[in-house]
Amino acid sequence: MSTFYFVTLFPKTIATYFSESMMGRAVANGTLRIKIVDIRSFAHNKHRRVDDYPYGGGAGMVMQAPPVIRAIESIPNHDHYPVIYLSPGGKPFDTGEARSLAHQMAAAEGLIFLCGHYEGIDQRALDRCVSVSYTIGDYVLTGGELPALVMSDAIARHLPGVLGNVESLEEESFEHDLLEYPQYTRPEMVDGVAVPEVLLSGHHAKIAAWRHEQALKKTAAQRPDLYRKYLAEHPPKTGKK
């Protein structure tokens, strides 16, 4: 069974997310396992303090290396699992990275997320424990829990048995460098706007062609970078002379 380990100062944030929806079902049915490691449990002081002022001065506080190291190394076979640190300076995370990490996780049967806070974590802990750093975008968040949840959700979708319908994953945005086509459901008419007629035709080839065309238009309008990438990898077919 694949296990996500979250090394964090805020266990409830993680536990709440994995108690509901698709991820909650995956945990409940045993497809996925979640283990939360509270860094404060590894603080060797009366007040369970895990941060201190930065050497050299500066604003804010820095998480201390010893409790972080102890927390990670308390995980059984921790050296067998990739350790991911969430940082604005990390490698950009996308669906390709999600697939790659899912394969690594399936092989190792585990993945560790290190969630930082304040002004970051003492570099000595990062140098000792972290395999790779990732960012989910060019902005700063209060802590690493939200990025870790974003990444774990995206990764889990590529693990066997997490999604009930494999076709859902194959048709989602970014799986083929295109955004997903527009979706419609009942009723057929909403405030005078009807469902596109082709979707009611029952003609699967025409529906597939329409959806592909809509995905191309949407990607070109909203993500021209992805559209250019798609065209480079799927050049238009030309007829033989």
TrEMBL record:
Top enzyme class: transferase
Principal location listed in the UniProt entry: cytoplasm
Transmembrane segments: none
Functional note: Specifically methylates guanosine-37 in various tRNAs.
Subunit structure: Homodimer.
Binding site for S-adenosyl-L-methionine: 116, 136-141
UniProt xrefs under InterPro entries: Alpha/beta_knot_MTases, tRNA_m1G_MeTrfase_C_sf, tRNA_m1G_MeTrfase_TrmD, tRNA_m1G_MTases_N, tRNA_MeTrfase_TRMD/TRM10
The name this protein goes by in its record: tRNA (guanine-N(1)-)-methyltransferase
Family designation: Belongs to the RNA methyltransferase TrmD family.
CDD domains: TrmD-like
A single cellular component GO annotation: cytosol
Keyword Cytoplasm among UniProt keywords: yes
EC number per UniProt: 2.1.1.228
Subcellular locations according to the entry: Cytoplasm
Catalytic activity field: guanosine(37) in tRNA + S-adenosyl-L-methionine = N(1)-methylguanosine(37) in tRNA + S-adenosyl-L-homocysteine + H(+)
Biological-process GO terms, alphabetical: tRNA N1-guanine methylation
Domain annotation tRNA methyltransferase TRMD/TRM10-type: ranges: 4-229
